[in-house]
Every structure is written in structure tokens, then in C-alpha cells.
Write a structure and sequence with these properties.
Length: 220
């Protein structure tokens, strides 16, 4: 099968795939000049796989429970990804800690979205922790992945105010709305060649970023 000349993208998921859907929609309407070549889930029968199939994107399950350890799972995952020769690997709700070998293999072409304004609230339960901490601003961060959990160089952040009557659910919903705008934007920049990682630092339009971009400050 002849490949599209567009940059290739593989998306890794573990669940419902709402950020995946935002990427599918952005690619379909031309906001992302890239081709989503495959969607791979580490969990079977999740809704994100159905989203991929409805868009005629190859969908595959590599169940982490079928492997004796993290390293052998990551090796199988890398083999599956590399069959599609991606320029970019996108973690979209992929709930696995990746091994250093995996991260090194995709250095500079592996990005993740995290539901907090990093470096605040790395890890899980970010919305609950934000409310408990009494912060006034919360949001999401898109970053290149390194071996530190949620610690890679941040590309773009999108903020929302924390309201007095917020619950973790209402806060999460507002953050997710921002995620669905911000993630396609970053993928678009990468596919345009405007976004790179050089020696551990984010470069945008041939300039090193001194601080993360802020959405919608740079949305052209």
C-alpha cells in the first residue's frame, strides 16, 4: 500500500479516546496536515478503538497483561508502532509508564498531554489535588516525553480558572475542552516542521522556548 506523503502519526490510547477524536477531526478537516496511520491500545474493547475504526484508521490492541514485564511489552509496542513508520507518536490518555528504551527510541517525536499545569500535580488525580491545594488556575500541558514521569519539556499549556463551586468533575470537563483545542494545535505545528526538540529544549519557529507557549496566545 502506498503511503501518504503527509507526516505519519501513531496514537496510543488506553480508554475512551476523546483527545484521539479531536485529532481525527482536525486531520479530517485539514487543520492537521498529517496522516493518523494507526491507533494502538494497551486495553481491549475501549471506546477509542471504535473511534479509530469509524474513521477507517487501523486499530490494534497490545494488551500489557499478556506480557511478563514492562520491558517486553514495550518491545512489542515499539515493533507495532514502527511498522507504520511514524514521524510522531502521540500519547492520548495512554496510561502506561514507558521504559527508558522506549523513550529513547522515539526521542524528539513522542508527545503527551497531562491534565495539569506542569510541573504542578504530576501523576494521577490532578483535578482533585488542584481543588485540595486551592489553586486559582488549572489546565493542561503538552510536553515532549522523557524518562521522568510527566517531566519532559513543556510545549504548550492551556489554563482555566478554578471556580468556587467546582467539583473534580466540572473542573475536569473544562480542562478537557481545552485539551481538545490544544492537542491538535501542537500536532499541527509538529507536522508543519515548526516544532522540534533539540538537546532537551523545545524549539518553535527556529527559536528556543524560554517558557511554554500559552493557548490561545499562539494559535496561528
Amino acid at each position: 500500500m502506498r503511503r501518504s506523503p503527509l507526516p505519519g502519526i501513531v496514537v496510543l490510547i488506553s480508554g475512551s479516546g476523546t483527545n484521539l477524536q479531536a485529532l481525527i477531526d482536525a486531520a479530517a478537516d485539514g487543520r492537521i496536515h498529517g496522516e493518523i496511520r494507526a491507533v494502538i491500545s494497551n486495553r481491549p474493547e475501549v471506546a477509542g478503538l471504535d473511534r479509530a475504526r469509524r474513521a477507517d484508521i487501523p486499530a490494534q490492541v497490545i494488551n500489557h497483561r499478556d506480557f511478563p514485564d514492562r520491558g517486553t511489552f514495550d518491545q512489542a509496542l515499539m515493533a507495532a508502532i514502527d511498522r507504520h513508520q511514524p514521524d510522531l507518536v502521540v500519547l492520548a490518555g495512554f496510561m502506561r509508564v514507558l521504559t527508558p528504551a522506549f523513550v529513547a527510541h522515539y526521542e524528539g517525536r513522542l508527545i503527551n498531554i497531562h491534565p495539569s499545569l506542569l510541573p504542578d500535580f504530576r501523576g494521577l488525580h490532578t483535578h482533585e489535588r488542584a481543588l485540595e491545594a486551592g489553586v486559582q488556575q488549572h489546565g493542561c500541558s503538552i510536553h515532549f516525553v522523557n524518562t521522568e514521569l510527566d517531566g519532559g519539556p513543556v510545549i504548550l499549556q492551556a489554563s482555566v480558572p478554578v471556580l468556587p463551586d467546582d467539583t473534580p468533575q466540572t473542573l475536569a470537563a473544562r480542562v478537557q475542552q481545552q485539551e481538545h483545542q490544544a492537542y491538535p494545535q501542537v500536532v499541527r505545528w509538529f507536522c508543519q516542521g515548526r516544532l522540534t526538540l533539540r538537546n532537551g529544549q523545545v524549539w518553535f519557529d527556529e527559536q528556543p522556548l524560554q517558557a511554554p507557549l500559552q493557548s490561545p496566545a499562539a494559535n496561528d
